Description:
Elements: H1 3-17, H2 19-23, E1 28-34, E2 39-44, E3 51-54, E4 62-67, H3 68-75, H4 81-86, E5 91-94, H5 96-100, H6 102-105
Amino acid sequence: MTPKDYFDTKVPENLKTKADKLASINAIYEFNITGDDGGVWTLDLTQPGGKVCSGSGGSATCTVTMDSENFVKLVTGQLNPQMAFMTGKLKVAGNMGLALKLTSVL
């Protein structure tokens, strides 16, 4: 799995299956994934049903930066989000409270 695979398939599934939880978040996330298979993705939860797209929307409330290898480990459950943050593998800019809600999104 690559970050692109995850944002193209899994995130849209989560938007459908977790719509009730995600509607209350009302934020825009930007994911800056570095390294091989990296890229930038925007997750807009201000729109009904949410929307994920490639590239920067420029108006993120919370920006998450991590390398592609650690991102894949994070979303597959091999890396604890709190440990990733505390060890510098996961960096957050913007609203930290929104970062804590990412587990319900991802």
